[in-house]
Amino acid sequence: MxxxxxxxxxxxxxxxxxLSGEPEQLAEFYQKWADTYDEDVSNEEYTGxxxxxxxxIDILQKENNQADNQLKILDAGCGTGLVGIVLDKKxxxxxDGCDLSEEMVEVAKQTGVYQTLNGGIDINxxxxxxxxxxxxxxxxxxxxxxxVPPTAIKELLRITKKDGLVVVSTRSSYYDSTDxxxxxxxxxxxxxxxxxxHSTGPYIAExxxxxxxxxxx
Length: 217
Prior knowledge:
The chain is of the alpha/beta class and 217 residues long. It has one domain: 3-Layer(aba) Sandwich (Rossmann fold). It contains 9 helices and 7 strands. The protein has a 7-stranded mixed β-sheet with strand order 3-2-1-4-5-7-6, with helices on both faces. Strand 6 and strand 7 form a beta hairpin.
């Protein structure tokens, strides 16, 4: 791996954080990035998918005294399928995925780990998904600068069944720069969700992430 490749990977990741969060701009950006995304994030030691999967399983075991691998799970903002690959290796095969980028979804299809995949899905408004559709929803790498506002968590809660789990990562710079904590605290105060866990862990070489586990009320 060359120093030049490392630099290019770092630069494109940083460029993604400077986006406006507008779906059209994001879709255009990821259309161009889809072919080299996996290589670029690998160059930057992106361990988020592995970590969030293990985190999800740990939460399941703590809450249910077992890790039920028959759960119907949505990988929300699945990208090229990095989380889905890890879930599949851990025995979770009842898995759907969605992403805003059609091109990223095409790459994810090649993994063969998803039952269904949908592109063109804006996590701010997942109108094609019904209420209480999934036992669990996982979202890694979506709540990051330039992508979605903290309020997008409401859609992930909506499509998850009562007593189901929603597990997300928030890159540390995103957490520090947004009102994500306040949004989650408000949702808990309103009785929509219970925050089961909030901790920090490894994410990418440059910085850690906050990891969250919610129980839908």
